[in-house]
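User: Please fill in residues for this 264-position structure.
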């Protein structure tokens, strides 16, 4: 099974630019085209939050229009730039989204079980999973301890060393870590939010943060660094799972680059 992960498209109202500089809407279209031109078509596309920049109904309409071009099954989860109720309303016909409360869901129709945990607190930009969310996660994971599972959480639950994004990480991650650690069938935890590819060992599994389809957060590891982002090569993650090999995750750059050259 091949799962493509896009993240943080930050779709804006028609004609507006993200941060006044990036055409996030066109960049999402570029990402969709990229997926559809891959030599192996993903079985599923997972979009890990910040679908819109300000969570406005007009932005969700724009998102729906853009995502209409994606002829592959896809799953949508919210990020801190989304608005929970506007998100729910915009995708009212989507049957995996709960009709009230946090937007957690589990999809069990594929060889990989997808468990999406809503780490957003309305009105806040950092992540946090409350007791109800932790209970939901534990209960959901306990329903199948053997099937390979991918857990998706918008906010990475660790410090990256980039101080200005660490201020907005998932806070109080210890109870979450304890739950994840108690299951040995979690192939990976996949996140978005940090607009950059970051990987780490955590809770007995691997956490992979996916780049944004839009801008890239500056890699400034000096503790005194001030925040910035750049227009960089955008990318997505491709999580390839086979029964015999387990899951392998690839970074796939979006856009055209010189080549192909001879392999030898
Ligand atoms: Fe984002
Ligand atoms: Fe975010």
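Assistant: Residues filled in for all 264 positions:
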């Amino acid at each position: 099974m091949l799962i493509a992960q896009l993240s943080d498209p930050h779709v804006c109202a028609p004609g507006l630019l993200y941060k006044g500089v990036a055409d996030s809407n066109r960049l999402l279209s570029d990402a969709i085209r990229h997926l559809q031109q891959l030599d192996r078509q993903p079985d599923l596309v997972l979009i890990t939050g910040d679908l819109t920049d300000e969570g406005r109904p007009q932005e969700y309409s724009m998102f729906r229009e853009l995502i209409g071009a994606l002829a592959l099954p896809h799953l949508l989860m919210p990020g801190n730039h989304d608005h929970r109720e506007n998100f729910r309303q915009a995708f009212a016909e989507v049957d995996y989204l709960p009709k009230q409360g946090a937007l957690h869901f589990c999809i069990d129709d594929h060889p990989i079980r997808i468990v999406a945990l809503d780490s957003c607190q309305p009105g806040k930009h950092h992540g946090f999973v409350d007791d109800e969310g932790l209970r939901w996660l534990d209960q959901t994971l306990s329903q199948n301890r053997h099937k390979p599972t991918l857990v998706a959480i918008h906010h990475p639950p660790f410090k990256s060393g980039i101080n200005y994004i660490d201020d907005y990480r998932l806070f109080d991650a210890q109870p979450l870590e304890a739950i994840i650690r108690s299951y040995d069938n979690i192939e990976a935890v996949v996140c978005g939010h940090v607009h950059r590819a970051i990987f780490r060992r955590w809770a007995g599994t691997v956490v992979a943060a996916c780049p944004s389809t839009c801008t890239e957060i500056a890699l400034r590891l000096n503790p005194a660094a001030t925040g910035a982002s750049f227009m960089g090569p955008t990318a997505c993650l491709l999580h390839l799972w086979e029964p015999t090999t387990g899951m392998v995750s690839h970074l796939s750059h979006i856009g055209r680059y010189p080549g192909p050259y001879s392999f030898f």
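For context: Residues 8, 10, 50, 79, 81, 193, 195, 212 surround fe (ii) ion (ligand 1) (CB under 6 Å).
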